[in-house]
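call fold(seq) -> tokens
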Amino acid sequence: MHSGNGEHVEMDERAQVCFAQALDDAGLPDDPRLRANLKAYFRWATQAMSAYPESPENVPVGLALGRWSWDGPV
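ret:
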């Protein structure tokens, strides 16, 4: 769904800022580890979704969406 839309680094960076602000808006606990992990996940997911900017045909067949844990990508 995200492939083939070209590179959009500025939009990705803004999305990450909005995500961080949404953590406050959602009233999540002010737990530094929780917030750092959620922000790292969103950064990782954003990078994964923008890995194939030129064309959907460049996405490998059967590519699985990665998983995340408290320790980062699994």
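The radius of gyration is 14 Å.
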